[in-house]
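RETRY 2/3 - previous attempt timed out on the joint model. Re-submitting the same 291-residue input unchanged.
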Amino acid sequence: MRHILAALIIGIIFGAGLTLSDMVNPARVLAFLDFFGDWDPALAYVLGASLLPSAIAYLIAGRMGRPILHTAFHIPENRVIDRQLLMGGAIFGIGWGLVGYCPGPALAGLVLGAWQTWVFAGAMLAGMWFHSVADLSVFRHGSIDLRS
Amino acid sequence: MLQPLDPLIAIAGGLLIGTAAALLLLMSGRIAGVSGMLARATGIADSGPTRAEAAAFVVGLPLGALLVSGFLRVPQVLVTSSVPLLLFGGLLVGFGTRLGNGCTSGHGVCGMARLSPRSLAATVTFMYAGFMLVAVSRHMIGG
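RETRY 2/3 succeeded.
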């Protein structure tokens, strides 16, 4: 029960940060991506500031045997940069640049009064579902293995 | 029109986001990636945290938005995309974040903080794609 309550409170803090920093505003995000237009640096401040507590936590976690509420850390150890990762990033980036929403702001923004957010979030869920049922073999060839 | 945003407010929001990522790591041992949490909460992904934890995190996001807009600062939400564009963009974001195992939060906030080469590559890729898309759509097609 404690770990569910913790996840809820952490989600609330995350959503509060996205809202306070105006990342729930697609126009703000698109203005950041519009480097050759009237550029708005807010997203760079937000992402830069977020890295500080996040990085400190990874340093602390390295000295802890296990997290406070669970038996083990689940940090991805995959170091292979493959076609799926890069194609996924590119496809996501195109959708992000089209509308100005990424998953966090699209969910936090559901209660902020714009009906378009619901349309986007519904389509996003459909895209996630499609990935789980689609034949992905076209994305599987070619990789750069950084372990070698 | 987009209202200007005080950089200090942007930094304060970023610190909150990073604090949430830090707490999730130290409390639950997990990466605070929103796309992964949503896929897990809805049952689209079958591995990761428990569905109850993922769902609690996902439900927390709009609750946090309500708290801030109720007590601190009402955000401007300006969506200019048409419905077909919202649908197409949403499909791409959903599919792409699953294929690439993460989004702005998992790769950007969490992955870059731990200097993960995969997350750095993913973040550079989606940033570049976003910049290029907006450059082409706003300055070459003339939209």
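Chain A has six helices and two strands. Closing ticket.
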